[in-house]
Amino acid sequence: MGFILGLVIGAVGALVYGPKVGLRGEELRQRADDLKRRADDLQRIAQKLASDVQSKGREVVTEAKREWDKSGTGPAASGGSTGERSDGGTGSPKA
User: Fold this and answer.
1) Phi, psi of 89 (to 5 degrees)
2) Of 32, 12, 68, which is closest to residue 77 (Cα–Cα)?
3) Is 20 in a helix, a strand, or coil?
4) In the 8-state DSSP scheme, what is residue 61?
5) Rg value, the chain, Cα
6) Is residue 84 within 8 Å of residue 74, measured between CB atoms?
7) Sign of the torsion angle spanned by Cα atoms 63, 68, 69, 74
8) What domain count does the chain have?
9) What pLDDT, in 10s, does the model give residues 37-61?
10) Residue 63: inside a domain, yes or no?
């Protein structure tokens, strides 16, 4: 997100300080305002995207923990916190 913001600020600076024939101050202000609005829109989009990714990440972690516990390899399944399987890790049923 910082990269995008830097890119927009650089573009604004180029418009303001770059040599443009025929552009008056009002036109430059209008362009700068337009670029600021676009930067604000991009920031909102990036924040929404980051929020969505964070939420999805939490869901994935929760589901992975649930699957881990169901598989019999997790601490909840073995009754301890070592993470060792109750069958000795061989995958074969107890005799």
Assistant:
1) 85, 5
2) 68
3) coil
4) H
5) 28
6) no
7) negative
8) 1
9) 999 999 999 999 999 999 999 999 9
10) yes
Does residue 36 form part of some domain? yes
Structural domain boundaries, residue 28: 2-14+24-72
In a domain, 78, yes or no: no
For the beta carbon of residue 91, count every other beta carbon within 10 angstroms: 8
In Å, what is the CA distance from 87 to each residue of 16, 78, 79, 94, 95? 71, 10, 13, 6, 10
- One-letter identity of residue 50: A
How many residues would you count in the chain?
A: 95
Q: What is the pTM of this model?
A: 0.46
Q: CB within 8 A of 65, min separation 6: which ones?
A: 74
**Residue 6 within a domain:** yes
